[in-house]
Amino acid sequence: MEQRFFLGESSIKELIPILQEYTPDHIFLVRGKKSYEKCGAQAVLESVFVKLACGVTEFFDFEANPKIEDMEKGLSLLKEYPTNMIIAIGGGSVLDMAKLLRFFYSYSGNPTGGEFEKKRQLIPLITLPTTAGTGSEATHFSVLYKDKVKYSVEHDAILPDVAIVYPKFTYGNSKYLTSCTGFDALAQAIEAYWNVNATEESDKYAAKAIKLLWPNLPLVVNSPTAEARNKVSEGSYWAGRAINITKTTAPHAFSYSFTTDYGYPHGHAVALTFPFFMRYNIGNSDILLNPNINPYLYKIKMQKMLQWLNMECVDVAIAMKEYIRNLGLDIDISQIDISKIVSSVNIQRLINNPYKVEAICLEE
């Protein structure tokens, strides 16, 4: 399915024309709890609903990092109030929840693995992210947790029909939230670029994302301007488009236990090991390089990326640590039980890493 997307300060103007195309008489709105009003989305959406004269059912009674119990609660509500449009507005957890609800309303199957069977037509889904950014509005997979174990539900039908990336919804985000979500987007872009599954198309999206995110994320965190926030919002979308093709690699694979066992928000959890894997994936021996990757071409790609990051003549791990700390993210893991992190690694993401990951010391 080809997604329609709209980026920038004028993107919100597309919402009413798009909704008029679908002529919904009842909308199922998946939203954040406090963020919905705080970011300005409530005022915008309520005026839209009045203009369309449609019914609305709201679902916001769920925790961050979508859990299977919360999804089942949402499905019950969705079935109770027949709808012909789903709108999701919020951060990554909100968008993931909406994608899961839309999918499992129409498809049967085990959410934690197995085959899926289509039972009914998909309900159209429009996503409006309020963070920059998880990239969830641009991907055909969603995160789902069961008993503290993270699963990735993947299917073409999970990709939203429409993404409207309106950067003004992110303007009021706190410094820490901006750092976490922004670094997640940057990590996605870099991981897509060095990925085993990288293609010419994903490289194009990843490069665009890196060039937007790398110089502007520190500005958004430390001295935000509308221009910088707009560029970070756009960059996060392209990062999502990149990982929609490649998926993520080792830093994401190791991140999930930091969240479930130690409470780190996802983007911060990814940052904890990123300097290590930055060095590991750029300065490693060809012996451990995935056999499907051409060593010569890979080195050229990494040299090109280091030029974008202004890291030509420095230790990449040290440079990345400095960058992350400048975002206000603490990356000291000396008090973390590394054996617990390693035992919980996500193999689905690890196999996408360009270099084979064997016995390693993450505290290096």
UniProtKB/TrEMBL annotation:
Residues 4-167 form the Alcohol dehydrogenase iron-type/glycerol dehydrogenase GldA domain. The keyword Oxidoreductase applies. Gene3D superfamilies: 3.40.50.1970, Dehydroquinate synthase-like - alpha domain. The keyword Oxidoreductase applies. InterPro entries: ADH_Fe/GldA, ADH_Fe_C, Alcohol_dehydrogenase_Fe, PhpC. Belongs to the iron-containing alcohol dehydrogenase family. This is Uncharacterized protein.
